Every structure is written in structure tokens, then in C-alpha cells.
From TrEMBL:
Full protein name: Putative hydrolase of the HAD superfamily
GO biological process: small molecule metabolic process
InterPro entries the record matches: HAD-like_hydrolase, HAD-like_sf, HAD-SF_hydro_IA, HAD_sf
One function term, GO molecular function aspect: hydrolase activity
Top-level taxonomic group: Bacteria
Cofactor: Mg(2+)
Keywords on record: Hydrolase, Magnesium
Keyword Hydrolase: yes
PANTHER family: 5-AMINO-6-(5-PHOSPHO-D-RIBITYLAMINO)URACIL PHOSPHATASE YIGB, N-ACYLNEURAMINATE-9-PHOSPHATASE
Keyword Hydrolase assigned: yes
Cross-referenced Pfam families: Hydrolase (PF00702)
Length: 218
């Protein structure tokens, strides 16, 4: 192997915990009370609207507005009619989300092992270029990553084969010489394999760590 490509959210970056903490601390500002049920609904709404953006149905800002239109009624909170008012309201969530950003404890050690073994290191993520790069910088991993490819910068998103092939090209390696590691079995493993990469599933629930995968595959 000459390169390793990591997914970002819920692989290197703990999106689930960061977002859950953000919702819990943001809800009182909206007059709501945090509960497990509301946090769970936030993630359902997030996935639905985020996929609308990935499929080209709405803009990135549009999917944020969609989240609020779906979520605010659950709190009994009025939904602003104007987009700019929705945008202003969403900044409250973003403030809490960004304050909660954190890497998994095994993320930096895994990247350091990969680099020490002479591998090129890439990140392939379905997300906004500005935000995903900001995450890597904030959680202290940007210095260990050679290439960051986002669905926004590539013009395609996982599981499109071109997402993986363009990332390999950016790293200067062939797909056959590249391993992809991520938490999503379909997007980070099965689709990557179809594109010609080796790929391995980061199943944290089964006790697998990034360090285990990097050490065994490097």
C-alpha cells in the first residue's frame, strides 16, 4: 500500500457526540428542554436534509434551513418565514457544535503510524470544504493529512466511484495501492472496493480501533 484514505465524520472526528452535545446545550436557548428523543430526531432530520444537498436538490445552506423547518415544530417554536432569519437561528447551533468538536482518541496516533510507515494520507468526506477543513484544523489533525477531498470540491459524493478515483489521483497513487478506512460500511467500504481500492470497516461497536486497522494494513 502507498496511501490510506480516511473518512472524517465518525471516523477521525466524533460527529455524533459533538452534534448531540451541541443540540443539548442549544435547546434551552430556543425555549426547549433537551431529551434523548429530541436529540435522536435531530439526527434523523439531519440525515434527511443533508442527503438532499448531496443529491443536488438544495444548497448546503438550504439543507440547514430545512433542518430547522423540520425540527423547530417539535419544540413548539415558530418557524421563521425569511431565510435570513433561519440562517441567524442556525448560527446558534453552529456555535455549540463548533465548541464541541473533538477527535477520537485513536485518530492522531493512527495518522502518525500511517505517516511513519511512509503512506500518503488522504481524507474523503461527503461535506462542505470549508467546514471539513476547519474540523481537521480544530481537532489537531490537519498537519498529518496530505489531501482533503470533499463532495463539494470533487463535484461528486460517495458512493460515486469518481469520488474514490479522484481522491487517489489527488494523492498520486493508483486505487489498487490505496486502502480506505471508514465507519460507513456502504460508503467507505463496499463502494470503495467497487472502485478498486482495498477498504476496511471501522466498527467501533465491535471494539475495532483506527490504530488496529492502520497497524494491520500499513
Amino acid at each position: 500500500m502507498k496511501a490510506v484514505v480516511f473518512d472524517l465524520d465518525n471516523t477521525l472526528f466524533d460527529h455524533t457526540e459533538s452534534a448531540a452535545a451541541a443540540v443539548r446545550s442549544w435547546l434551552p436557548e430556543l425555549g426547549g428542554t433537551a431529551s434523548d428523543a429530541l436529540v435522536a430526531q435531530w439526527f434523523v432530520i439531519e440525515e434527511r436534509n443533508f442527503n438532499q444537498w448531496l443529491n443536488g436538490v438544495v444548497t448546503h445552506q438550504g439543507q440547514r434551513r430545512g433542518r430547522l423547518r423540520d425540527f423547530l415544530p417539535l419544540l413548539g417554536h415558530p418557524v421563521p418565514e425569511l431565510d435570513e432569519d433561519l440562517d441567524q437561528l442556525y448560527t446558534g447551533y453552529l456555535r455549540h457544535y463548533e465548541a464541541s468538536w473533538a477527535a477520537y482518541p485513536d485518530a492522531r496516533p493512527a495518522l502518525e503510524v500511517a505517516r511513519s510507515n511512509g503512506l500518503e494520507v488522504g481524507v474523503l468526506t461527503n461535506g462542505s470544504t470549508t467546514q471539513q477543513n476547519a474540523k481537521l484544523a480544530a481537532i489537531g489533525l490537519a498537519d498529518l493529512v496530505d489531501v482533503v477531498c470533499t463532495s463539494e470540491s470533487l463535484g461528486v459524493s460517495k458512493p460515486d466511484p469518481q469520488a474514490y478515483l479522484q481522491t487517489c489521483s489527488a494523492l498520486g497513487v493508483e486505487p489498487a495501492d490505496t486502502v480506505m478506512i471508514g465507519d460507513n460500511l456502504e460508503l467507505d467500504v463496499l463502494a470503495a472496493r467497487k472502485a478498486g481500492l482495498t477498504a476496511h470497516h471501522l466498527d467501533r461497536a465491535a471494539g475495532i480501533t483506527l490504530l488496529d486497522l492502520v497497524r494491520s494494513r500499513s
